[in-house]
Amino acid sequence: IHHDMLLRLLTTPANPPTSAGRPGPGTERFDLCVLIVEDNAVNQRLIQQLVSNLGCTWIAVANGRAAVEELRRTAPDVVLMDLHMPELDGLAATMKIRAGESGEGMRDVWIVALTADAREEQRAHTLAVGANDYLTKPVRMPELTEALRRFVQARRNRASGR
């Protein structure tokens, strides 16, 4: 991240979870609710801004334990889950969610893993644990857009019985 971009990111107000994001020119609008699970404040802020720019609302928590608890209270469309966090990492949180510890209704929530680890073994392991998708950091708008498109398509396929 360049200093100018970081400064702009940190000084621009992000949309709170109750307000609709405003997509930038030429940007798709998804109108989804996204749970951002990220312990690093700078990364969290960057993801909040990207999600807002895609027309999504968001809720942010700082670790996997808080994510499991938040999913008991709210029902976001998508979870963006960092893999390396204190208290409960993203893999363990994903396993708890899939095991129903956030409630039966959240067992199948769409989870996109976020990590700086680009190794294929890590990707395969993460998907085997229960993540639906895998993005490497730093998260960029084109990759996040594609991940949200994959979610929307999967939701359409499920709704039509495919």
What does this structure look like?
The protein is of the alpha/beta class and 162 residues long. Helix content is 43%, strand content 15%. It contains 6 helices and 5 strands. It has helices at residues 3-11, 41-53, 64-73, 90-98, 120-129, 141-159, and strands at 33-37, 57-61, 78-82, 110-115, 133-136. It has a 5-stranded parallel beta sheet with strand order 2-1-3-4-5, with helices on both faces. The longest helix is centred in the C-terminal third of the chain and has 19 residues, at 141-159. The chain is globular, with a radius of gyration of 15 Å. The N and C termini lie far apart (40 Å).
- Termini separation comes to 40 Å
- SS class: alpha/beta
Q: Quick one: how many beta strands?
A: 5
Largest sheet: 5 strands, parallel
Cα-atom radius of gyration:
15 Å
Task: Record the strand order, biggest sheet.
Answer: 2-1-3-4-5
Q: What is the arithmetic mean of pLDDT?
A: 88
What proportion of the residues is helical, as a percent range?
Answer: 40-55%
What is the molecular shape?
A: globular
Strand composition percent: 15-25%
- Can you write the helix and strand succession as a string? HEHEHEHEHEH
Task: Output the number of helix runs.
Answer: 6
| Low-confidence residue ranges | 13-23
